[in-house]
Each structure stands twice: as structure tokens, then as C-alpha cells.
Design a protein that fits this description.
Blueprint lengths: L13 H14 L18 H16 L3 H4 L8 H12 L4 H13 L8 H17 L6 H5 L1
């Protein structure tokens, strides 16, 4: 991202924020610290501890104060990431049903640009696909 300006997660659009942070950390070789603690040695080297601290710093600096409260006390990037995913990854059955309803009811709003409408439809479709609910291109266009 230009000048390393990261979006601030305020409780909305978690999938987008998550993707941006994952890509940012990957571009700096830090994505492994988001995964299982086994990705880092049981007794991490000073270098691994420093890099994990950098990854945790990226996560915490990209959270609003309200969201940062959720990761207080988490000392590793993995622990903080895991907590945020538990809270905001929309994989529950009720989330799936809610998104399916939103997708079925989506309509172009009065005065809305076609590109913006398509972007909203694609966003919902991608969220459903991420949850394991396949929405074909034909269904999305219909």
C-alpha cells in the first residue's frame, strides 16, 4: 500500500480488512505469524520474537480503540489474529442465512452507479463463496 497506510478496522467489513492485512504482512514476510503457533519454533529465536512483535504491531495499529480492546493481553500475532477471526469471521449458520437473504434481496438503488451495484453483488457473492456457498456467475448476474 502506498506509504504503508493501512485501513483501520472498526467492526465493519472484516473480510476486506483481513485480506488487506494478510497481503500486507505477506509482502513483508510476516504472514507465518498469523498461522498456527507451530509455524514458529516452540522456543522462538530472538529474530522470530522480533518479527512476531512486528506482525502484532501491524494488527494492533490497524484497529480502532474499540476493536483493540478485543486483543488486550494477547502477546503474539497469532493469538490476536485468532481472537479477531473468532469474533468476526462470518462462518456461523446464522451468518450464512443472513448473507443468503441479503444476496437474494440485493437490488440496484435509485441513482446508484452500475459499477457500484456490481461491486456490492460481487462482495456478497465472494463472502458466500468464502463460507462454502457457491454462487455461480450466472446466478450473480440474474
Amino acid at each position: 500500500m502506498p506509504s504503508d497506510k493501512l485501513p483501520v478496522f472498526d467492526g465493519k467489513d472484516f473480510p476486506v480488512w483481513k485480506m488487506v492485512i494478510e497481503q500486507y504482512l505477506a509482502s513483508r514476510g510476516l504472514e507465518r505469524f498469523l498461522r498456527s503457533p507451530d509455524a514458529v519454533a516452540p522456543a522462538p529465536s530472538e529474530e522470530d520474537a522480533r518479527l512476531d512483535s512486528q506482525a502484532l504491531s501491524v494488527i494492533s495499529r490497524s484497529l480502532s480503540i474499540k476493536q483493540a480492546r478485543h486483543i488486550l493481553g494477547h502477546r503474539t500475532a497469532h493469538a490476536a489474529w485468532d481472537r479477531l477471526c473468532q469474533l468476526y469471521d462470518q462462518r456461523s449458520q446464522s451468518s450464512k442465512i443472513s448473507l443468503q437473504r441479503q444476496f437474494s434481496a440485493v437490488q440496484m438503488e435509485k441513482g446508484e452507479d452500475v459499477a457500484d451495484y456490481i461491486s456490492r453483488v460481487d462482495y456478497l457473492r465472494n463472502q458466500l463463496n468464502d463460507m462454502g456457498i457457491a454462487i455461480s456467475e450466472a446466478t450473480a448476474v440474474a
